[in-house]
C-alpha cells in the first residue's frame, strides 16, 4: 500500500519562486501557506489586492517568516494578465512553479472583459495567456513546473468548437465541465510541446476531489441565492474533505520528485473525491491530441498570445 503523502512530505523550497493564482482564498490560500512554510517566495496573483493583502496577513500570523508578494492579476481581463506578467518578469529572473489555480464554477452566463464566456475565459483562456506570457522565464528556470488545477467535472466535458462561448446554448455545469476539460488538454499539450522543444519545463494537471471551499458556496449562491448556498454548505459538511486536504494534489504535483510531466494528480480514495494524492488517469477525451492541438490554436487566436518554444541560451 502506498504511504500517505502529506504537506509534511514537501521538500524545502528555500530560494524558490512560486506564483499562485487565486491565492487569497480556498485552495490557493492553503497552497500559498504551505509553499511559504517550506521556504518559497510566493507571488500571490489575485483579482483583488485588498483581499490578497488580508490573506497574506493571515498567512503571516501562521507562518511569521512567510515571504509573500501580493500582485493584481484578473484572469477575466487579458490586459491585467499581461500587466501582471510584465511586472513579474521585471522583478524576478526565475519562476520555479506556476500554479494555475484560480477559477469560477457553475455561474449564470456572463462574459469577461474581453467578451469570452466567463468560465471558459477565466478558467482556461486567462491561464493560457498567463502561462504564455511567463514561458520565457519558466524555460530559463532549471526544473520549472506548471501545475494546472482541473476538476473531476472534466470527465463530463466536451469542447464545443462550434459554440465555444456558449452563445447559442448555455448550461452552467456544461460550460464549467468544458473549461475543466480545457485545463487538462492544455496541461498535457504544454508538456508535450515543451518536451519536443527540449525545454526542462514540466507541466502537470491536478484536481482536488470534493473539497470544502468557498467555490461551492459561491456556485450555490449564484444558482439559488442564500438557499442554494446553504444546500451546498450542507453537502460540503457531509461529503467533502477539508480545504487543506484538497490542496494536497496541487502541492504533490508542484513538488514531488517523482513527477516527470504530463501526469494527472488527484485524491486516491473514494471515487477520487477524497484521500491522499496519487497519479491517476483522466478522461478519454483529455488524451485526444487532435482536440488538444485545435484548442491550442484557437486559444492562441482568441488571446493573441503565441507561445515561442525556444531553448534558452546561457549568457557568456
Report on the structure:
The protein has 316 residues and is α/β, with parallel strands linked by helices. It contains nine helices and eight strands. It has an eight-stranded mixed beta sheet with strand order 3-2-1-4-5-6-7-8, sandwiched between helices. Helix 6 crosses helix 9 (289-303). The longest helix is centred in the last third of the chain and has 26 residues, at 214-239. The mean pLDDT is 91.
Structural class: alpha/beta
How large is the radius of gyration? 18 Å
Poorly predicted runs of 5 or more residues: none
**Secondary-structure element pattern, one letter each:** EHEHEHEHHEHEHHEEH
Mean pLDDT: 91
Helicity level, as a percent range? 40-55%
- The total of helices stands at 9
Strand order of the largest sheet: 3-2-1-4-5-6-7-8
Strand-helix topology:
Layout: E1 17-21, H1 26-37, E2 41-46, H2 49-62, E3 67-72, H3 78-91, E4 97-100, H4 118-133, H5 135-139, E5 145-149, H6 172-196, E6 202-206, H7 214-239, H8 243-255, E7 264-267, E8 277-279, H9 289-303
Parallel strand pairs: 1-2, 1-4, 2-3, 4-5, 5-6, 6-7
Antiparallel strand pairs: 7-8
What are the salient characteristics of this protein?
316 residues; alpha/beta; eight-stranded mixed β-sheet; globular
Short description:
Strand 2, helix 2 and strand 3 (67-72) form a beta-alpha-beta unit.
